[in-house]
Amino acid sequence: MSFRLDGKVAIVTGGGRGIGKAIAKRFAEAGANVVIASRKMESLEAAVKECAGLPGKVDAVQCHVGRADQLQSLVEEAEKLFGPIDILVNNSATNIGQGPALEVSDEALLKTMEVNVLSVHRLIRLLVPKMIARGTGGSIINLASIAGMRPQPGGLTYSFTKAGLIMMTRIWAIEFGKHKVRVNAICPGLIQTDFSEYFWKSEEHMARLKATQPLPYLGQPEEIAGAALFLASDESSYVTGTTMVIDGGATAK
């Protein structure tokens, strides 16, 4: 076995930037053909250009993951481009409704659930039956967060949905294991992306991180991509239902 993905086809949501782009690039370097998806075509096209010349091909499909019809189209377009899907990385997320819990609106909670949880559930229902029917198995990788393992101050909606995604990952792993479909979650700590700039641009937050985190520096998207490659590859053939924490040791204390 090796960390190669030759002949495999992957979908990576939120693949236009940050962690999603880093994962797509690592997969293509390992030989997989990858479809990246997000709402913004401009960032997707830039990511495709960045991945040009790699062993695997990277193509883009514009998709709002909160909309069921667009998820259906994403799967159909990905299959037309490269064939049956072997790997699904659910990376798209939103983090609205920051602030005191009593100020979180119904709309913010529902929107966060739609993007962070319901989109994953919908893609699972679209893809896993096909993986089971082919009999060759598959790998599902859900990007959760350490905020789903311990409360994120002022982050009711985000922590709640990421905790739910962790539990759903375990349930899916139990149900799909007999079909050789593995389901795992990655829980990053603070990673330097546009998505998390609210935190790493805060001098107070960064000072606290450097003073308390065992690895006193800001994580990079590539440090998550390596774990995703492991979980997508045959090297993790006996790994399912796990939550892989990559946080510089932040939760060790």
Mean pLDDT figure:
94
The beta-strand count equals: 7
- CATH architectural type: 3-Layer(aba) Sandwich
**Strand content range:** 15-25%
Helicity level, as a percent range? Answer: 40-55%
Straight-line N-to-C gap: 35 Å
Gyration radius, rounded: 17 Å
SSE-based structural type: alpha/beta
Number of domains: 1
Residue windows where pLDDT falls under 50 for at least 5 positions? none
The CATH topology name reads: Rossmann fold
Query: At the first level of CATH, what is the class?
Result: Alpha Beta
Largest sheet, spatial ordering of strands: 3-2-1-4-5-6-7
Main pleated sheet? 7 strands, parallel
The CATH superfamily is known as: NAD(P)-binding Rossmann-like Domain
SSE order:
EHEHEHEHEHEHHHE
**Outline:** globular
Q: If helices are DSSP runs of H or I spanning 4 or more residues, what is the number of helices?
A: 8
Overall description:
- It is a single chain.
- With 253 residues, the chain is α/β, with parallel strands linked by helices.
- It contains eight helices and seven strands.
- The chain has one domain (9-246): Rossmann fold.
- The chain has a seven-stranded parallel sheet with strand order 3-2-1-4-5-6-7, sandwiched between helices.
- α3 (68-82) packs parallel to α4.
- The longest helix is centred in the middle third of the chain and has 29 residues, at 106-134.
- The model has no long low-confidence stretch (mean pLDDT 94).
Quick structural overview:
With 253 residues, the protein is α/β, with parallel strands linked by helices. It is 45% helix and 15% strand.
